[in-house]
Amino acid sequence: RVGRGRYRITARGRTVLASPGPITLAQLATYPEYQEFKSRTKSGAGPAAVALETVTPLEAIDAAIQSVRSAVSVELLERIKSAPPDFFERLVVELLIAMGYGGSRRDAGEAVGKSGDGGIDGVIKEDRLGLDAVYIQAKRWDNPVGRPVVQQFSGSLDQHRATKGVLITTSAFTADAKDYVKSIGKRIVLIDGVQLASLLIDNEVGVVTEATYRLVRVDQGFFEPD
Asked: pTM of the full predicted structure?
């Protein structure tokens, strides 16, 4: 912890994030650091317990929310990967509609997952009037998506004279893939598994609100003299 609500990832954490596939509790349980953390949490002793005494209530709430959000993100990706292939296509439709694309559910449903033309999985309206279109490719993969796949997608956009595309994956993108999209004239947005889960949560797709809490503070102005 390097500041209020701010944390710095460790070298071990970077190694775990760089590994392909989702991060599971079973995987975390193999690391001594995680075992030590669980042991401290159960016993209520050690540095973790001492640190909790210095955390404000708002910081504790924020940490708890982030913990729940992380757990939900992992579960979302696991469920997406275990679902039938066409489920991912429907999920993309629901997410894009929730984000304001597609015009209507019928329009989006007819566009996404029906093309299969030159590496394009679908075309969706950028706005409700259909003034521009966004071409989509979805990869429900465990392994990272590399530069060749992104190059192929870019070539498919050329065939359709398109300049905008979204490539979505449940895994991650290699550094070469990310560098490639920065070097071309077309606008290609890469959405990896972490971003996908975050967008699903933020747009309330595939999740439900379990509880809502109301936080209050003293109104200093109310107590000041007129």
From this structure: 0.71
